[in-house]
């Protein structure tokens, strides 16, 4: 797991809201289920498909106030470039894991009680990002700094 400021990872502007890039249409693949990688006390609060390659899950632990993200492939195989990312929008604290994995990237954690989070994942060249969502408070600040993961 790596932790660093969001500005270090800022490469381009992708826009507000949910952003996903997907490959050309192909054979249907069963979605990867959440694997419990974040640990005890974490429950899924949101998820997004990463094209047809897998799913990125956002989980939350109400006792600790932590969010956790894990990106899971639909099927295991040769190591593939993957990313799991989560950031507290209010504090700029973020955490990510990037590398070549056979099953999943993450878990990565950030304290975010009462704050909005940015989160997402990458599998191979397919990516899915959600910016400033899952707010613990309706008054969540939307300082909004985009993060973009391009191809290696």
Number of strands: 9
Question: What letter string, H or E per element, gives the SSE order?
Answer: HEEEEEEEEE
Note the beta-strand portion: over 45%
Sketch the major β-sheet: 5 strands, antiparallel
Identify the overall geometry.
Answer: globular
Brief digest:
The protein is mainly beta. The chain has 1 helix and 9 strands, in the order H-E-E-E-E-E-E-E-E-E.
What are the SSEs and their pairings?
Elements: H1 6-9, E1 17-21, E2 43-50, E3 54-61, E4 66-73, E5 80-88, E6 94-101, E7 104-111, E8 117-123, E9 126-133
Describe it for me?
It is built from one helix and nine strands; from the N terminus they run αβββββββββ. With 152 residues, the chain is an all-beta fold. Strands 1-9-8-5-6 form a five-stranded antiparallel sheet, with no helix packed on it. The radius of gyration is 14 Å and the shape is globular. The protein starts with 5 loop residues before the first helix and ends in a 19-residue tail after the last strand.
List the main descriptive attributes of the protein structure presented here.
single chain, 152 residues, mainly beta, four-stranded antiparallel β-sheet, 1 helix, 9 strands, 45% strand
């Amino acid at each position: 797991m790596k932790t660093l400021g969001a500005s270090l990872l800022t490469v381009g502007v992708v826009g507000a809201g949910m952003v996903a890039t997907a490959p050309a249409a192909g054979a249907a693949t069963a979605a990867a289920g959440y694997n419990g990688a974040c640990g005890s006390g974490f429950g899924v609060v949101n998820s997004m498909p990463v094209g047809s390659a897998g799913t990125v899950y956002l989980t939350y632990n109400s006792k600790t106030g932590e969010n956790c993200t894990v990106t899971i492939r639909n099927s295991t195989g040769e190591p593939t470039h993957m990313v799991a990312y989560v950031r507290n929008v209010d504090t700029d604290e973020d955490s990510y894991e990037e590398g070549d994995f056979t099953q999943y990237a993450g878990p990565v954690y950030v304290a975010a009680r009462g704050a909005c989070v940015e989160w997402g994942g990458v599998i191979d060249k397919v990516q899915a990002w959600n910016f400033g969502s899952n707010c613990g408070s309706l008054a969540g600040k939307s300082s909004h700094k985009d993060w973009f993961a391009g191809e290696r």
